Amino acid sequence: MATNVSVILQMSDGTVSYLRNDVTMGTLTEVKTDASGILNIAGGLSAGQALQNKVVVAAAAKVQSDDATTGCFGHCAFYSPQGNIISLVQGGGNMDSGLPALKRPVKLTTGVTVKVLAQVGETANLKIGSMAVQCASGKSDIFFGTAVDATAVAMLNKDGNTIGEALSGERAVMTYQTYATTNGVAQIGVADGINAFYVENSSGQLKYMAYPALGRDTQSLVPFIPCNFLIDQNDTLTITANT
């Protein structure tokens, strides 16, 4: 069963564009302009190439499995030509929602891309947990990790850095988090799983906890959760699951 992701982009000049691609589940995949031929859009182009010098002010991603609603949203963002995250994008699966304003508008130039992680929501298989972090400075990053039964797994960004290594000195002001296993992170008992993602300092003191969303079966986008904590260099973000 194939799954595709679409992303609607709204520009500062009032125009709209549409990205859509089949995606590999569990793998960060670029979503390019729709190539169906139904719309008056040049298909198969990166966002920055197709819409040069446009400024995106709002966007939303939707995960769609063929004739099903099993596809789950993990995370989405605009990436610079150097591969750095420019701005986070919210998304969902079986949703009906407007386009939320980006926390940081994005000027599209050659090399700017939109990439999405999607998964299949299941009970049996452990999945990738994702947390997108927005900072007061405007900087953002995404941390993720594949859960292991009864094991604490550090969630790292695309460069393999912890939240402390990547965002030291930044103040987190909101996050969104996803986990595609249908019954939650700690779905059996209380002995060896924590039903939220959590940030600790170097001595193990809790600084932040947040419940992840499934990324589908809701009429709303995965929401940003307000927060307020200073990130230090030795802070860690962890997912601890059970099955």
Architecture overview:
This protein has 243 residues and is mainly β. The protein has one domain. It is 4% helix and 44% strand. The protein contains two helices and 17 strands. The strands form four sheets. Strands 1, 2, 4, 7 and 8 form a five-stranded mixed sheet that branches. Strands 3-9-5-6 form a four-stranded antiparallel sheet, with no helix packed on it. Strand 10 (128-135) and strand 11 form a beta hairpin. It is globular and about 55 Å long. The two termini are 25 Å apart. The relative contact order is 0.18.
Secondary structure layout plus pairing:
Elements: E1 3-11, E2 16-22, E3 29-30, H1 47-50, E4 55-65, E5 71-79, E6 85-89, E7 91-92, E8 101-107, E9 113-120, E10 128-135, E11 140-146, E12 152-154, H2 163-167, E13 171-179, E14 197-200, E15 206-210, E16 225-230, E17 236-240
Parallel strand pairs: 4-7
Antiparallel strand pairs: 1-2, 1-4, 3-9, 4-8, 5-6, 5-9, 10-11, 10-13, 12-17, 13-16, 14-15, 14-17
**Between the first and last Cα atoms, what is the distance in angstroms?**
25 Å
With helices defined by DSSP (H or I, 4 residues minimum), what is the helix count? 2
Radius of gyration: 17 Å
Largest sheet: 5 strands, mixed
Counting helices, strands and paired strands, the structural category is mainly beta
